[in-house]
Amino acid sequence: MIAETRVPLAKGTWRIKTLSDDGVRVFIDDKMLFERWDIHGPTPDAKTFTVDTDREVSIRIEHFENDGYAMLTVDLEPAE
Q1: Containing H/E element for 18?
Q2: 28-80 residue pLDDT tens
Q3: By three-state DSSP, how is residue 32 classified?
């Protein structure tokens, strides 16, 4: 699965969190922020990134499911 969006964000530090079962990749403005591209049970990941000016940010999430239970949640919040 590939999901893409553009989100208006204010200048500052932001945190994106996922809870995934199985592989997940997160890209901010086409740059990989983090990757857990393996087979695993529900696993949380979180990373921060900085937005230098108020603007739209491109977010892309890639996810795969091997078999059995499938899960993907994504949260975006200010890191401060």
Answers
A1: strand 12-21
A2: 999 999 999 999 999 999 999 999 999 999 999 999 999 888 999 999 999 97
A3: strand
Which pairs count as long-range contacts for 29-37, CB under 8 Å and 24+ apart, including other chains?
A: 29/57, 29/58, 30/58, 30/60, 37/64
Query: The whole model's pTM is what?
Result: 0.94
Encode 39-69: b = buried (16+ Cβ within 10 Å), e = exposed: eeeeeeeeeebebeeeeeeebbbbbeeeeee
Buried-state track 16-38, b at ≥16 Cβ within 10 A, e below 16: bebebbbbbbbbbeeeebeeeee
Q: How far apart are CA 63 and CA 78, in angstroms?
A: 24
Measured CA to CA, the distance from residue 19 to residue 8 in angstroms comes to 23
